[in-house]
Q: What sequence folds into this?
């Protein structure tokens, strides 16, 4: 039986780990495996998440670079293959802030993992202030937005309506069909997230993240 796969993307500070912890709680009835891609050599996020699950969730990590970069793709696919063969219902991948998830659907198809995993969502967390400002100088952020099938505007409780309206306009200019949802403190209606369009994510990306 195929397993659901959720990719959580977004630049540093957008709130990925907080959302991940809430997502795990929201799916407490399921067997979950989590793969965390920390850019640094010390897996801080993985250690934090593992400490909160009491061993009920399988937590793995890949450090030292983006899992979608050629330098880490083999490690990423091997980790996914291992998790796909485990007795779990869902696999959640928290990509590093410098990761471009554009090619995830293609990677799954080329590796044969699409027979075992169903890409349910590619979520992009977007801080209406920080992500917006950095999007003009960091090419990875627009790629993350464009690749998403759902964009989550984070920190809606501490940003202004003007900030969020500006962020919505930016997101919509890059991604004209992904739903844009406002959330705060990493809380979202995970069960009610719009379904992924089947053909999304097949495009090529010319972006090469730093290693």
A:
């Amino acid at each position: 039986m195929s397993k659901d796969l959720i990719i959580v993307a977004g630049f540093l500070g957008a709130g990925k780990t907080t959302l991940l912890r809430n997502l795990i709680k929201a799916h407490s009835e399921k067997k979950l495996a989590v793969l965390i891609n920390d850019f640094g050599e010390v897996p801080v996020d993985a250690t934090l998440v593992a400490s909160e699950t009491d061993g009920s969730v399988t937590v793995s990590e890949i450090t030292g670079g983006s899992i979608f970069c050629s330098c880490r793709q083999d490690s990423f696919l091997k980790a996914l293959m291992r998790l796909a063969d485990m007795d779990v219902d869902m696999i959640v991948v928290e990509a590093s802030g410098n990761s471009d998830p554009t090619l995830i659907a293609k990677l799954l198809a080329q590796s044969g993992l699409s027979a075992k995993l169903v890409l349910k969502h590619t979520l992009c967390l977007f801080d209406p202030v920080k992500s917006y400002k950095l999007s003009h100088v960091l090419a990875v952020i627009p790629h993350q937005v464009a690749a998403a099938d759902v964009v989550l505007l984070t920190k809606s409780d501490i940003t202004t309506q003007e900030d969020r309206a500006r962020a919505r306009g930016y997101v919509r200019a890059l991604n004209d069909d992904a739903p844009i949802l406002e959330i705060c403190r990493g809380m979202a209606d995970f069960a009610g997230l719009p379904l992924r369009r089947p053909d999304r994510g097949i495009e090529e990306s010319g972006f090469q993240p730093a290693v």
